[in-house]
Amino acid sequence: MNGQEVTHTWRNYPALQQPTYEDPQHVHRVVTELRTRPPLVFAGEVDSLLDSLGRAANGDAFVLTGGDCAETFIESTADRLRLKIQTILQMAVVLTYGASTPVIKMGRMAGQYAKPRSSDIETRGDVSLPSYRGDAVNDYEFSAQARRANPDRLLDMYNRSGSSLNLIRAFTQGGYADLRRVHEWNKGFLTNPSYKRYDTLAQHIDKAMKFMAAAGTDFEALRTVNFYSSHEALLLEYESAMTRIDSRSGDIYDTSAHFLWIGERTRDPNGAHVEFLSHVLNPVGVKIGPGASPDDVKALIDKLNPEGIPGRLTLITRMGAGNIRSSLPALVDAVNADGRPVVWVSDPMHGNTINSETGYKTRHFDTIMDEVEGFFEVLQGHDAVPGGIHIELTGDDVTEVMGGAEHIDDDALRRRYETKVDPRLNHQQSLEMAFQVAELLERSGQNNGPESVDAQPRFNF
Ligand code: PEP
Ligand code: MN
Description:
By secondary structure, this protein is of the alpha/beta class. It is built from twelve helices and 14 strands. The two termini are about 40 Å apart. Mean pLDDT is about 90; it is low at about 445-460. Manganese (II) ion binds next to loops.
């Protein structure tokens, strides 16, 4: 199959948010090259994620997705990746231990390099240039040369994704994620309430470990953890070029990541993105904003999960704290009436973006938590399951989101505001959120005991 396009029907549908390249031959050369490259993820891994997500659909596991709004090539360094993985693992520990729920861990990582934009053009003063669409497309610098869409960046995306995945695999399969190291991951000062709370929890886990060791547990199983990659499947030339036919089953997989999602701007059931993902076996997500109708959601299920396979379709709500309680109920009722399972996941970030008085694009921690609480309320009040959260975060001590235990205010935003696109929770705000979500889960009694979410005999925290 090398060199040929595996699935092409998407080309007959309107594809929004695609870069405008000057030279189609150049794109063709890059895509032909990509089709010869080895897959980044493997069918067996994707299948085991699908299986785990099937459990999240009925409350037997909880999804935690975290990472940058937009990864950049220059920041895909070992240190930055390690801090992000560590943050997600710490959040997973808090959620698992606090709520006795197996957690499916996923990074918006190793491929989150393309962004949809509300405008094709960015204007500064009297200069207008193409918008930055992520490192997979063009460069952030505000010059005509930098903002030109360059197809070679798709090869860079592949290479960066591959090296990031290699590091993720090393960390999560090589002993770094060993539960016995939970204490070492705590890097903050214990005067901070989140770090203090985490430290106490790590002590409890240490104690439980010692007990298990004394009881003769096989600790080999604790050394590794499943960690999945995900990104927005935005650039269809790239995603299509990364699609492969599994030699064993004959099934089609998009091998650019384990999980792919479609954004709020490209989720038209009659558009190219939905058409493309309808042909691959990976579990897929769709972002759902406040404008989505029950018919829209039904049409997405018809197209993306016609057979009702558990775990195949995740609906990621991003309504805004002010809308979630009024806009979500009708959608949940429609999905329940339809009967085909979905995983409901809350993205409490994208509906809550504001501009600070000091001119920064930001979000407030309390508003974010309010949307998560509204999400839990609606789903639990409508006979459905809150299946997970999808968060923009970083492992660094940035100051991009207001509030939290450090009380980041308008003025503090300028201290360390680094994001190229959307504001992210910093390390301690991420932990704080995990503790609060663990409480919501605990209160809901969504408690599944110690059973592992994976087929493999692993201890899944
Ligand atoms: C995102 O996840 O960064 C994003 C752009 O989300 P949405 O499509 O929900 O706006
Ligand atoms: Mn974003």
